[in-house]
Every structure is written in C-alpha cells, then in structure tokens.
C-alpha cells in the first residue's frame, strides 16, 4: 500500500532559503494549503509540532492513543490551565484535546462530514443580538463555499448518498463514493425515526467505502474514532493531502518543528517563522508569506507569542478579537441497551443521522440547534470506565456482568449542536505555567452560555426519545459536566470590518498583508455539527485566493 | 479459582508472534515473561512496584473484576501490567498508585486490625473494605489501573489470553464484513423496516 509508507522528503529547504509560504501546522487546513499552493507552483514548507507517523504506526492499541497520547497533545509536555471566568485564577487542567501529528486531528477524528447549511452563516440576521453572546453573520454564504465543499468530498474522499437528507443544502455534484454499510445502530435510528416522524439519513463520512485514488477501502475494523487508520481508508489529511503535496516536489513537510514565533519586520510584514527543531535548537525559516493553521487554540497562542511593539496584544490583533469567542460545538449524549447484539465495535462509528432539529422552533426560546447520530464510540477501557449507566455498580461481579451484557448490545445517541460565541470564552497565555520548551501554557477561560445549557437539556431529551423509540430496554443520560473540548473554533474570527474581526473573507489578516490564518479559529459561529469539513472547504477557497495574490504580486500588499 | 490456561501460540490477538516482535520487541519479551510466571508459578519480575504491592493490587483488582465464566483481573495479569505501565507510559501515576495501595491497606487494617495487608483478608472482608472507600480518589486510581490492565492490548502485559476482550464478547480483528450484528441482518431489517407502500 503505497500510501502507507512515508516517501523520502522530496525537497528540503534551507532555513535561509526564502520559500514562498511557511505554513504552521500540518492538520486538516494546513495540509490542504500545502497541497494546493505547491500544486500551483509555489515553494512550501509546513512546520508541524508533532511527529510524522504513517499507517504502519497505527495499531489497535487503546492505551497508546489514550494514556500514551500517541496522536494528541501530551499533558506532560504541553500542560494547560483552565478557569470558568476571568474572576478566577486558572488551575492546572488539561482541558483541550487536539491532534499533534502530521495530519492533525483528521488522523483520529470520527470522520462525520456534514456541510454547513445556509442558516449557519446567518445567525445574527436570524436571532439579532443575544445577551451575553456576540453573534455575527459570516462574510460569506453557503453559495460561496459550495464549490469547495464539493471539492473536499472529491479530493479527500467522502462516502454518502446525495438526497438522503432532506435538510441538506443544495449540492453541485453527487458524492464520489457510495454509502458505507448500514450498522445496527443505523437500523435502529431508522426504526426510531419512522415512529417519531424524523428523517433518518445516510451519514456522510470521510472514509472511503471503495478503493479510491490508490487507497484501500475501509475494512470495518472498528478502530476508527481516536485511532489512525492502518488501511489509509479514513480520509485524513495524512492519507490524502500530504502525499499529494509531497508529490509536487515543492513541498517539504518538516515534523517535530515547534513554531514559537511569527517574525515580522519594521514594515509590518511577516518574514518567516522561528521554531524549535527536534533537538530544541531555535531556527528561523524565511518565507515570503506565512499561513497559520495551528488550530483554534494554538493559532491565537502563537500570535500572542509573536507580539511586537506595534502589536502588543498579539500579532494581527488590532481588533482585540484574537483568542476570543472560543467555541466547541455543544453536544448531548445518552445510551441505551437492547435485546440483541449491535456489535457497535465493528465498522466506523456512525452510519445514520437526523437533522430534524437543525434549527429549533423559536417558541422554545433556544437559539441554534443541531443534529443527532447513533453510534458506539467506546473502546474496551473507556467503556469499562464510563460506558455503562452512571448509577450502575462500578466494580464487582454485577459490574462485570453488566460490561458483558452491554458492550455488544448498546448504542449511544449523540447530538452535535451550535454553541454561542461569547467574548468571555477565550484562549490566552497562562501568566505562570510553562510548557516543556519554556513557552507559556494555554489558558482556557470558559463557561457555558445559559442558552447552551438549555440546548443541552433539550437535545438530551431528544436522544432519550430516540433511544426509546428504537426499542431500548433501558436508557441513561450523561450529564453536561464539561463540553467535549475537541472542536476548537472562533478565536480569530473572519469578517469584513477590521475592528470586529482578525481575518478578511479570504483569510488574510487585516493587520499584516502577508500573514494568513486558515483553520477553525476563522469561524464566526460554531456551525451545527462538526467543523473539519468546513475547515477544509475554507482552506481550498483560501488557497485559491492566496495563489491568486501570489501570482499577481499582491502577497505583501492588500490591493 | 479457574484452572490456568496453557499459554498456547500467540499473545492473544490471533496475530503471529513474529508480527508483534517486529513492532514491539520489548513488549513481546515482557508478555512472554508474564506468561512464563503464570504457568510455572514463579514470581514475575517486578521492576517498578514491590512484590507486596503487586499482591495487594492483584487482590483489589480481583474484587473489582472478579473471576466468573472468564478470568478475574488477577489471572488476566493486571499486576504485571501495572508494574510495566507505572514504570513507563503511566509513570506520572506511580505516586498516586503508592498512596492508593497504602490507603487500601490502612482501610484493611481498620477493618481487621490483625491483618498483615489487604491481600490477607477474606474475600468478604475485602469487599467490605473496598465498599468503605469506593467513593474516594484512591479507589478510582486502582480501578482505572485495573480496567486498563484487564482491557488493554496484551502487549502491555495484561488482558492475558484476551481475557478482557472475551469477557465483553469481542475480538480484535483487522477486518469485519456486514452484517455486523443482529439488527442489520437482511431478514431482521425487512421486519423492522417494512417497505413503505
């Protein structure tokens, strides 16, 4: 399997060699930028904090990806702090989880690839000002992004069924690949939907159901969410965009390279990046332009660390918006056990979903909405820790019996929803704690908006309703506790007005013409599902625009 | 007490020993040593925890996941797992483990003042002891390591002979094909989702 083996680096640039683009982060966005810009003829270096793993490094080893943090930020090397509000001092807490390998979070994600609907771009038009939130419309619409959603589906490989979801926005092409097989959890969602008058739809997933562009089809091994795919069938950026970028001979992926600063000069232009190499030497890579794609937490952190006299509050932060409006998507989670085997551990996690609650009835007084899927996304250790009902015995003979009965006979309903952008929810540099390189740790300040607590309760009730209608013998809820902090969004908002946004609608920062930000931090509002597909669509669109600027000599000045 | 199984060919997953040796050479040696200890009855070589800690932890673990139709945590090798885990990937938890074992022994002595340690109690006394501390942080730590030892990949030293995976009715395979369970069998689907007329 040719894509499982890392190619010899096709090109190596010297640090003093002023490449066309230095890209920070080889995740879902950075990988798209690298592929598109190197294909357009530009010399590109991608600096990635994490390692360059490949398919042969991916094993069915739950301990390695959980306690071992093989694919994600390691709490020992990258500790974090957390506080509920700015009134408190932040305490040590590893709150955010993100990918830290070449391919980023797309290596371990669940691969749900829902497009935004038009409503997702127009939250302020729809709801006006909501107290305690800072809603805004996006500077783009669904129609602007549609061609790029389609490009994502065909370039990375997404399996699905056009027309299956009556709530889906219009599309210009069908899916490139037929649906993945329905799972028992999908059958039961269809049973429930018929009873409730909802519309079960084929879940679009970034996993290939058939061989595609030299990659092997999914073998349904089940070690999907949280794991790298040893088959190359999960359409991670690692399996798709990275090899394409390297094949141009113009793109160097430089792993174990931890960018600590974006350098700017007296003209106020970016000149390159300073990074720690694997031996912790500091090196400056020169570049004509810099693209930051480090994720919704690391991107603002890097720009805070790149502060200058001109930008004391962080590079490109004249608006003061950097780091603010941190969103994760909301979610509700409930379980149910059934008479017969579902064997949810086989196959990808999700095969069906419903979007009947995508925007809630205004009479409910809840802003936003979302979708619900059914799945089994435990693995043996995590299931034995938290998978059975919270009030069940958690040790002893009864506990063991319950593990045996429930593992193969349970499924979970998971809602993904909007989450309001709050100025008070943010990422900043911790004033005291340092990471293993001596750099300031990420400090998260976050409390759920009351609207989103109501939304959680509402969707929790819908999840239980769904499981009951599916025929569950019994059901149980998971409390809201803390949201799952894995979708990192909103912290370098896109907009037309430099006073209320960090980047323009083509991801150029308002303040530094040759500095671009392309990742989840660009989001204006959270969307109602998962962000990676939209992040990649935005990246394809940004790459097209940025290649155009470079071609016309407009990289260092906004025309 | 279940009879000890013979450790047959592979290390539990149906994958050849050669495959494991290629990617986890140390783990292969570890797991083989653990199994040798189990089959010969000789004491396993502990590197990180003491033999007494291993005995007490195995006793705690065997009440958390007792033997029934499948092995309990002790026979699944969780003590050996804990030794390797706390000296490697989980080294950050070693101090907590030490505190937790000490707390369990203190609770045991509180219950039975003449007991040498938790391992020396009767099963009934052990359950009563654990019940008295089950809401505390120390118990959570031991439960988490027990669960990790029972269910993690056998290359880490536990889950001997896939005891954990057999308990919950799964196998680790590289490939499955549909139908995956009961509800996606075609006849069942036809009944559950009759064609709308």
Structure, briefly:
The complex is a heterodimer of chains A (559) and B (197). Chain A has 559 residues and is an alpha/beta fold.
Written description of the protein model:
The complex is a heterodimer of chains A (about 550) and B (about 200). By secondary structure, chain A is an alpha/beta fold. Chain A is built from 11 helices and 17 strands. Chain A has helices spanning about 30-40, 60-65, 125, 140-155, 185-195, 240-245, 300-305, 380-385, 395-405, 450-470, 530-550; strands at about 20-25, 45, 80-85, 90, 200, 250-255, 260-265, 270-275, 280-290, 330-335, 350-355, 370-375, 410-415, 425-435, 440-445, 475, 515. In chain A, strands 1, 2, 6, 7, 8, 9 and 17 form a 7-stranded mixed β-sheet that branches. A 6-stranded antiparallel β-sheet of chain A has the order 5-11-12-13-10-16, covered by helices on one side. A 4-stranded mixed β-sheet of chain A has the order 4-3-15-14, with helices on one face. In chain A, helix 1 links the parallel strand 1 and strand 2. The longest helix of chain A is centred in the C-terminal third of the chain and has 20 residues, at about 450-470. The mean pLDDT of chain A is about 95. With about 200 residues, chain B is mainly α. Helix content of chain B is about 50%, strand content about 0%. Chain B contains 9 helices and no strands. Chain B has helices at about 15-25, 25-40, 50-65, 80-85, 95-110, 125-135, 135-150, 165, 185-190. In chain B, helix 1 packs across helix 2 (about 25-40) and helix 5 (about 95-110) packs across helix 6 (about 125-135). The longest helix of chain B has 18 residues, at about 95-110. Mean pLDDT of chain B is about 85; it is low at about 1-30.
